[in-house]
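Cross-check.
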Amino acid sequence: VALQEYLLWREPLNVIIRYNLILSYLDAQRFEDALLLTQATLEERPEDQFLIERVTLGKRLTGDVQGALADADRVEDPIIQLAARATAYHMLGHQEESKAAIAKLAELTESIPQARDVLASVYAEVGDADAAFETLDRMVEDGTIKRMRYNEPNYLKLHNDPRWAQLMERLSSSKAQIDAIDFDVDIPSRSQ
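Predicted model, tokenized:
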């Protein structure tokens, strides 16, 4: 995060650095920072779907569930839109609407196998760990998914489940594997 913050300080208009920093903030569970940077960047790029999708996620993660649900209407990808709605409905206690959105999402992902990770993340967010792991395991087995970030924020509710560490090990993304990578960077001071 510190390196990307430095890079953004050096190149404040670089959108790729902003995208990467947003993802790093999410992985570091700095949800407020992720949401603030996403919203600031979205003001400059109001039609950017990556940013709109991250705003809905950031709002859910920071507790603004009504805002996330309202922003879901701006998401163009029907799979991401259904996922945002399903999780927001669940968080608001609207279980029937949540289940209906999940059922529709599951139906859509049958014809788009790459989208099953979205379905798995929804299962995780609504507390159905078994369905989430079943979906993720199926994706690993059929090669649809080859790598995931260990701290993936959409899967926070799975992180304490022993199956999460096992899954990450299978994807070469376990905490021990990541910690074994020597990454020691001296970040220049901002006065340079």
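The longest helix spans residues 95-111. The CA atoms of residues 149 and 187 lie 23 Å apart. Passed to J.P. for a second look.
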